[in-house]
């Protein structure tokens, strides 16, 4: 494990053998390029770049196992997942020195789906998540 930071751990009846969320922070990630089946190609490569010290924005990847579990149980998020997402978001906020939904110092997010194999055109990307009229006004003031 790099630099003492633990990935978020699963809890409850959906407990999996490994973490459900893998952060990629400056010079630090428990994930790496060999984990494409678990993290998707983008997620695995972002973790690898963070480990190598490449200057990328901080973020986190939710594993493909979570997606599989979501479909397996009929479209419900595994218990505790949103708490893990919120904790991971806090890590990213600390790393970036910004805060999600703060008009004075906002952190905007990109949400990208991914798979082990590239599937162009099959997956959605959401850019600038968190952008609204209040945030735009805050950005304009900056």
UniProtKB/TrEMBL annotation:
Highest taxon of the lineage: Eukaryota
Keyword match Flavoprotein: no
Family according to the record: Belongs to the PEP-utilizing enzyme family.
Domain Pyruvate phosphate dikinase AMP/ATP-binding: residue ranges: 37-74, 83-138
InterPro entries tied to this protein: ATP_grasp_subdomain_1 (IPR013815), PPDK_AMP/ATP-bd (IPR002192), Pyruvate_phosphate_dikinase (IPR010121)
Keyword tags: Kinase, Pyruvate, Transferase
Name of protein: Pyruvate phosphate dikinase
GO MF annotations in UniProt: ATP binding; kinase activity; pyruvate, phosphate dikinase activity
């Amino acid at each position: 494990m790099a630099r003492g930071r633990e990935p978020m751990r699963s809890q409850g009846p959906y407990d999996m053998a490994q973490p459900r969320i893998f952060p990629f922070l400056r010079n630090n990630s428990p994930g790496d390029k060999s984990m494409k089946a678990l993290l998707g190609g983008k997620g695995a490569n972002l973790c690898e770049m963070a480990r190598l010290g490449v200057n990328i924005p901080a973020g986190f990847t939710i594993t493909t196992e979570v997606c599989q579990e979501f479909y397996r149980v009929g479209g419900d998020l595994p218990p505790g997942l949103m708490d893990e997402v919120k904790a991971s978001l806090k890590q990213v906020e600390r790393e970036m020195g910004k805060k999600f939904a703060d008009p004075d110092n906002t952190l905007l997010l990109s949400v990208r789906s991914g798979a082990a194999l590239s599937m162009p055109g099959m997956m959605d990307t959401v850019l600038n998540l968190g952008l609204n009229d209040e945030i735009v006004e805050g950005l304009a003031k900056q």
